[in-house]
Write a structure and sequence with these properties.
The protein folds into 3 domains: 72 residues, Dna Ligase, domain 1 (2-Layer Sandwich); 127 residues, 2-Layer Sandwich (D-amino Acid Aminotransferase, Chain A, domain 1), CATH 3.30.470; 146 residues, Rossmann fold, CATH 3.40.50. 39% of the residues lie in helices and 26% in strands. Bound molecules: guanosine-5'-diphosphate and manganese (II) ion.
């Protein structure tokens, strides 16, 4: 579960990690009240479940009420990577000397907590990771209830000489580690962590994701849930026994099995296309599930073609074919559909589908990917 910057900062404050003075606002009127209360230059920040807001125009400085009004009006309602902004954080502007990146995540293969630190923090961190990954230092931290202070200081000394800064930085890492473990987070990130002109370290931004599998241990965090349209759709799909994750491409995929679904997306990419989603209909797919899956694919306006890739085992290809015919009866579908059926009852499935003129059938997954891409081009 993703939470907003303002919510993550509330948690930071609970752990005494320093943050700017700030207030959540839903309209310009509230923003002005917040501005007067803070009584100095502020930053208006879009609150949406995505990063890169700065680059998208979702972060704006305002030094008077007119600028504030303009910034708030522009940002509210803005579409940032498919997320509509419904609220803004009015945050006291901070005098930045330097921006650092600090992040904690799980390293599954090494069974450790991974700490990442970079002195090149700020909005370009993705670029730094791509072009010069050596500028992001990585530390494997043992899993425990807290981080040993000497270990935190060791890391801090890699970045700072001034003992005053070393202490502050080590303290922040220790506290972030505590947040990470105690809240069952899969990500805790501060970017930028800034040093001000007064040599103080402040978390100017906060990003946090809670492990969904641990939500049952955190009734206090459930109230922070604020799913946007896509997240709601994914949750609803889950209740229908489908794993659905929306992506940015235009080829809708319906596949059985997570591994095959990943392979299908790779195959589409390989031939120059882009998948619109990950969709695993699971094993023992009954026609109803297939129909529901078609519903998700067709409600996404980006989808221009559909690729169905089924390897029948427990899943029976004839069930899938039946589900498709039912979907065609109930949903108006004009998109090109390419189907590859293989394995259990594939022959029967293909026979059922031959009754419909809506689909093209192929015998291999690479053919299916190529054909789906060709129908769009
Ligand atoms: P993100 O783009 O979604 O990660 O949003 P951030 O909260 O990280 O803000 C993006 C950038 O805006 C930061 O890296 C800063 O350079 C700038 N910024 C944010 N708050 C302040 C502030 O209080 N003062 C100044 N001068 N710049 C800020
Ligand atoms: Mn940021």
């Amino acid at each position: 579960m993703k939470i907003h910057e303002y919510q993550a900062k509330d948690i930071f404050r609970e752990y005494q990690i320093r943050t700017p003075k700030e207030r959540l606002c839903f309209d310009t009127k509230e923003a002005i009240i917040a501005f007067r209360k803070i009584n100095k230059k502020v930053v208006v920040k879009a609150q949406v479940h995505t990063g890169g807001r700065g680059k998208a125009g979702g972060i704006k400085l305002a030094s008077n009420e007119k600028e504030l009004q303009m910034a708030t009006n522009t940002i509210l309602g803005m579409d940032i990577k498919g997320h509509i902004v419904e609220k803004v954080l009015i945050s006291e502007a901070v005098d930045i000397q330097k921006e650092y990146y600090v992040g904690l995540t799980i390293d599954r293969s090494n069974h450790t907590i991974l700490l990442m630190v970079s002195s090149e923090g700020g909005v370009e961190i993705e670029e730094v990771a791509r072009v010069s990954p050596e500028k992001i230092q990585k530390y494997a931290l043992p899993i425990g209830s807290s981080l040993a202070p000497f270990r935190a200081r060791e890391v801090a000394f890699d970045f700072f000489k001034d003992i005053h800064l070393v202490r502050q930085f080590a303290d922040i890492i220790e506290k972030m580690y505590k947040v990470f473990v105690e809240k069952d987070a899969s990500l805790v990130e501060i970017n930028p962590l800034v040093i001000t002109g007064k040599e103080e370290m402040i978390a100017l931004d906060a990003k946090m994701t809670i492990d969904d599998n641990a939500m049952y241990r955190h009734p206090e965090l459930e109230q922070l849930r604020d799913d946007d349209e896509n997240e709601k759709l994914e949750l609803e799909a889950k209740q229908h026994g489908l794993s659905y994750i929306k992506l940015d491409g235009n080829i809708g995929c319906m596949v059985n099995g997570a591994g095959l679904a990943m392979a299908t997306m790779d195959m589409i990419k390989l031939y120059g296309g882009t998948p619109a989603n990950f969709l695993d209909i699971g094993g023992s797919s009954n026609p109803k599930k297939v129909k529901q899956a078609m519903h998700y694919l067709t409600q996404d306006p980006n989808v221009k073609a559909i690729m169905i890739n089924i390897f029948g085992g427990i899943t029976r290809c004839d069930d899938v074919a039946q589900g498709l015919l039912q979907a065609f009866d109930e949903i108006e579908i004009t998109l090109p559909i390419v189907v590859r059926l293989s394995g259990t009852n594939a022959k029967d499935g293909l026979k059922i589908l031959s009754a419909s003129n809506k689909v093209k059938t192929v015998s291999s997954m690479s053919e299916a990917a190529k054909l789906a891409i060709a129908t769009i081009a």
